[in-house]
Design brief:
single chain; mainly alpha; 2 strands; CCDC154
Length: 262
């Protein structure tokens, strides 16, 4: 049998062994848990790296696109600015010519205004002098006697009577002219009808013997002219006399479309 001290030592060893085993198991579990946690943290880090890479790539792409747009905008702005500067330079170069043209126009306008003012002033001075002369002439004349109210009323009455008389004469003359015009138109119509009847009566051609002499009459002629012509001058004369009267009558009475009988 063991001694008590030895027993105590063995018991302590056994307890130490048990404690070591328990500690070892605990350490193993802790290491295992730590490994699991490390794997999880590692996966999270990988995920974060991927996320950061994606975000950085997207941000880089967006930044590049924005940068290109800004560069294009700056280029366009430079073109527009260059064109504007060229136009401004042209305008600035044209300004002296415009200023010279304006100065010339101003000089011409000033000369024209001065000329007009001078002419107007001279005209006004002449008008004033003429007015002074007229006033002097009026002052030298004798003042006529002013018209009275009775004189004015008498003149007004005379004017009214004259106007009434003129209106009456115009009315009477108008009526008389209309009546005379109507009467003349009726006379002309009757005369035209008579002339037309006469023309109808003399229109048929007369027999040739009325105008041409027979052979016997030619032999009896008094002169050579009558013998050669062979025309019955007496018949021609009578016919011409009848038709001439009609033509003269028709030419004597002429109807005007506006005034009636002429």
């Amino acid at each position: 049998m063991y001694e008590p001290a030895t027993l105590i030592l063995l018991q302590m060893r056994k307890e130490m062994k048990t404690m070591l085993e328990a500690s070892e198991q605990s350490t193993t579990r802790a290491v295992t848990d730590l490994d699991v946690r490390m794997q999880s943290i590692k996966q999270k880090v990988v995920n974060l790296e991927q996320l950061f890479d994606g975000r950085i790539s997207e941000a880089t792409s967006i930044l590049a696109q924005n940068l290109r747009e800004k560069i294009e905008s700056i280029s366009l702005w430079q073109d527009v600015t260059s064109q504007t500067i060229r136009e401004l330079n042209q305008s600035v170069q044209q300004v002296p010519n415009d200023i010279y043209a304006v100065e010339e126009k101003q000089k011409l306008l000033k000369l024209e205004v001065e000329s007009r003012v001078s002419t107007e002033a001279e005209s006004r001075i002449r008008d004033v002098e003429n007015l002074k002369q007229e006033l002097s002439a009026l002052k030298q004349r004798k003042t006529p006697q002013a018209a009275t109210v009775e004189d004015l009323q008498e003149v007004q009455a005379s004017v009214r009577k004259l106007a009434e008389s003129i209106q009456t004469v115009k009315t009477v003359l108008g009526m008389k002219i209309q009546s005379e015009q109507k009467q003349r138109q009726e006379d002309v119509k009757r005369l035209e009808d008579d002339i037309e009847e006469l023309r109808k009566m003399i229109k048929p051609l007369l027999p040739p013997r009325m105008f041409v002499k027979d052979d016997n009459d030619k032999a009896k002629g008094r002169d050579a002219e009558n013998d050669t012509e062979g025309v019955n001058r007496w018949s021609v004369y009578n016919t011409y006399r009848i038709t001439g009267v009609v033509d003269v009558a028709s030419q004597f009475y002429i109807v005007s479309p506006t005034c009636g009988l002429v």
